[in-house]
Amino acid sequence: MMWFGILAVFLIVAIRTGGIEEDNFFLLVPLGMGVFGFFFFKNLLWDLADEVHDCGDSLLIRSGGQEETIPLSNIMNVNSSVQVNPPRVTLRLAVPSIFGNEITFVPARPFSLNPFAKFEIVDDLIIRVDRARSRRRD
């Protein structure tokens, strides 16, 4: 909201002071930044689940007022990316949920000065998902 709010204020000030009439720069830059911000936020933030709770043999997912329990045996892949901030975890599902084939969330992370530290929570989840899938196949 701050991103678009600051751009709106910049645009309003440019319109009121007559900056747009003098130079199209004051119109094109905020519009370009707005389009860039929309796609940036759409791909990195707006797809995140609101809450993910570990229930042992399943995960409780809440997003956009909806809720679903995903058994660990339904998870095909757990992908953790630490190169983005905040770090993200993406779950690929064997059977789609009400949220689709993939669920992305930001896990709770203990304080660390090492930005490349491993996520113990994610490592544990990967092991438990593998065990659940193995039991499903047996």
Identify the CATH architecture of the largest domain: Roll
**CATH H-level superfamily of the largest domain:** FACT complex subunit Spt16p/Cdc68p
Q: What is the gyration radius calculated from CA atoms?
A: 21 Å
CATH class of the largest domain, named Mainly Beta
Order of helices and strands: HHHEEEEEEH
Please outline the major beta sheet. Answer: 3 strands, antiparallel
Question: What fraction, in percent, of the residue positions are helical?
Answer: 40-55%
**Measured distance between first and last alpha carbons:** 49 Å
What does this structure look like?
- The structure is a single chain.
- The chain is α+β, with helices and mostly antiparallel strands and 138 residues long.
- It has 2 domains: 43 residues; 87 residues, PH-domain like (Roll).
- The chain is built from 4 helices and 6 strands.
- The strands form 2 sheets. It has a 3-stranded antiparallel sheet, with no helix packed on it.
- α1 packs antiparallel against α3.
- The longest helix is centred in the N-terminal third of the chain and has 20 residues.
- The model has no long low-confidence stretch (mean pLDDT 84).
